[in-house]
Amino acid sequence: MKISDINPLRRPLILLAFTLVVSISCEREKPYSRETFVMGTQAWVTIYGLDEEAAEAAAGEALRELHRIEGFMSNWKKESEISLLNRESDGAPHKLSSELFHVISRAVYFSDITAGAFDISARPLVQLWGFEGGTAKLPTDSEIHAALQKVGYNKILLDIEAKSIIIPPGMELDLAGIAKGYGVDRAASILKKHGVERGMVNLGGNIYAIGSPPGRKGWRVGIRDPRGGRNTTGSLLLTDAAVSTSGNYENYIELDGKIYGHIIDPRIGRPVSHTLSVTVVAANALQADALSTGFFVLGPENSQNALELLRGVKALFALPNGGKVIYEEIGDFSGSLTIDDSH
Ligand code: ADP
Ligand code: MG
């Protein structure tokens, strides 16, 4: 997990008398929470305000939805719809379920927005660098060049009417940078359908917050220290919005003493090293997920262009600076973000 929600019940009771009163009354209402392991990570659903039976039904359906989505979007499942597409990519039109068509269309949109930095066709590079298992080894320039020939979102052709796709032979799609966000949005809408007005879905650091916990202004979400470990370096307050963090600290390989993170610049075929982590706040989790990966590749300066095309998106970059970490914000966090850079 890259972002951990700080359980409001465990926060220190603070300062003012009235705050104390509010905190004590919150202590009475225990949230219902349930978790599962899905899409290679831990998922949590937290609900306030429903009786136990109703909360159990809502959380159960939300978590089942995540498993259902994994079932057709995961590259790890050989019989998933995405695996089938990848195996059969021969340059002919391939009919997709409307759901997969939708997610791939959104992915291509975010490729456009990020000038190709976010690209679901980067899979040959992800595999070449050893991020899908096998032995990691430093690829040669000619191997990178060969893999790059198979990459390029602009070679993905989508037929909106027929809900079909054409990808060139050899191209393979990888939804790891967007599927979790899609899943979180779906799970959150299921909670709302069950009448949840105060709840949270957290899928490995891809979070959607509905309303706020009782007596609170929002869900306090901790931002993990980009250098690894379980420390948080800051936090933000979230209501009716999504947040996602992409980082190098959880999924990386070490070659010749150097660390290579799992996010690849699809334009040059190499893992990105100029960024440690990016946290994106956006209206929905799919957007936050895709943009956190795309912005990771772009860095703060080049992400500004994308921000100008989008509304209500904010990003916090953790950047390496010698042995230290510096933070840079783009967009407007309007006071809800606090960074503790004392360490
Ligand atoms: P995580 O999956 O850990 O939440 P991300 O959402 O940032 O992290 O997605 C990273 C994953 O997406 C990688 O493990 C890889 O499978 C794939 N990927 C790597 N580089 C890119 C990229 N430039 N654009 C889209 N997907 C990418
Ligand atoms: Mg992502």
Offer a quick outline of the entry.
The chain is an alpha+beta fold and 343 residues long.
Termini gap: 21 Å
Rounded average pLDDT: 89
CATH class of the largest domain reads Alpha Beta
Q: Looking at CATH, which topology of the largest domain would you report?
A: T-fold
Beta-strand residue fraction: 25-35%
According to DSSP, the number of beta strands is: 19
Residue stretches low in confidence (pLDDT < 50, at least 5 long) are 1-26
Helix-strand makeup class: alpha+beta
CATH A-level architecture of the largest domain: Roll
- The DSSP helix count reads 8
For the record, what is the CATH homologous superfamily label of the largest domain?
A: ApbE-like domains
Q: Could you please describe the fold and organization of this structure?
A:
With 343 residues, this protein is an alpha+beta fold. 33% of the residues lie in helices and 27% in strands. The chain has two domains: 18-71 and 181-339, ApbE-like domains (T-fold, Roll); 73-166, ApbE-like superfamily (T-fold, Orthogonal Bundle). It has helices spanning 17-28, 52-73, 81-88, 98-113, 123-128, 141-148, 179-193, 285-309, and strands at 3-5, 32-38, 41-48, 94-95, 157-159, 164-166, 198-203, 206-210, 219-224, 232-238, 241-247, 252-255, 258-261, 264-265, 270-271, 277-282, 314-321, 324-330, 337-339. The structure holds adenosine-5'-diphosphate and magnesium ion. Magnesium ion binds at residues 177, 244, 246, 289-290, 292-293.
